[in-house]
Description:
CATH architecture of the largest domain: 3-Layer(aba) Sandwich
Structural class: alpha/beta
Number of strands: 19
CATH topology of the largest domain: Rossmann fold
Shape: globular
Strand content: 25-35%
Amino acid sequence: MKAVELKNIYFRYKGFKEIILKNINMTAEYGKITLLAGMSGSGKSTILNLITGIIPNIIKGDIKGEILINGENVIGKSISEISKNVGVVLQNADSQIVMPHVEEEIAFGLENINLARKEIESKINDICNILSLNKNAKSKTLSGGEKQRLMSGAILAMNPKIIILDEPLANIDKFGAKLLLDALTDLKNNDYTIIIIEHRLDMLIKYIDKIYDIKNGIINEIEDINKYLDDEKNIINDNGIIIDSNKKIFEVNNLTYKIKDRTIINNISFDINEGERLLLLGENGKGKTTLIRLLSKMIKPTDGEIKQYITTKKRHWFDEIGIVYQNPNYQLFMPTVEKEILYNAKSKELAYELLNKFDLEKYKNRHPLSLSEGEKRKLTVALVLARLPKVLFLDEPTVGQDYDNLLNMINIINEYRNKHNTTIITISHDIRCANSLCDKCIILDDELKIGNKELIDEFFRR
């Protein structure tokens, strides 16, 4: 039975001449997992917003065609009406989290549909067990991957028969991804409809029943699913030159970081040399983002020390480093893409060169927050490179990137590093690009592991 059907959909955002979706026809059936794939900015999230009623209730635009849920056209219906049948997990988990603790976040939706207290408690325990969440944890202290699991769990707990997830695996480690995908498969086997928008296709091969690919606003159903997924899981070759430097840029000695009784970083020591590319691996919640914040001096260690050997005056430290945050919305604040990249760029020439390299020049007059999540990621990398930092910190920079955009981003980052001898410290769960951002690898676990690229295979084989 058809759960969701789009018939001859055309869509254009209010205030723009460009037609984003052109004669879209697609269906999602009960008892199947449907993947919506395609390049960043191709219209995937727009389709999600149309199905859930975010368009036109919140985001305005011109719509032609029909959007049927259980055979009923929902164009013009309120979000609350549509949400009785459809649950959605957005790309940016932070934008959906409203409660201070994990159990309260899961309970929030359940209370709104008037479930009994005992049933709410039972569902909280079930979801936390299935997705390996600590129900007593504070929402704001969770890692990016844990937040994504939390929001997926909060939606699953409400038991909608149609579930849409926008980049649910973006910041999740392999362990967490398997937990979520297995949970979705159980629902599928009980005749639920699952629609996933995702770029990490290497993790989806066993789970997908149907694929639609969208390009330039035009959609096509993929006939050979296995071939499509195999073609999209290519590993990117390393184009970084070997920089043989013995000059330390960081020296970490017995570093510890605690929040109250919780130890996040426990007595670790290592060095980072100038021009080195350090890849940080580890499961969600193991302290990778915390380590970047410590190295960048955003927070101070509880114990131990970090020596840095960048020649600069103390007050100029943040002029010498560049940080690409896990959530791009945290660093986009100017009214247009052009003004955003020019704000701290070393030169106008460099800013415009990077806009062109990242294929963002066509959006220069757009508001940065109107871009797709993948385009926002490209913009944040571009604007940080435009500052010419000596040390570059990248926290999950490749989220939301299809293979072509990912390849282009990695090539630009490595070309920059090759030219400027930049030290790069990266967090990534993306197997496609891990090898091409690594000279030295650290796995943050109960026992710290330090090595070379061979550790990447060890980590992803787990």
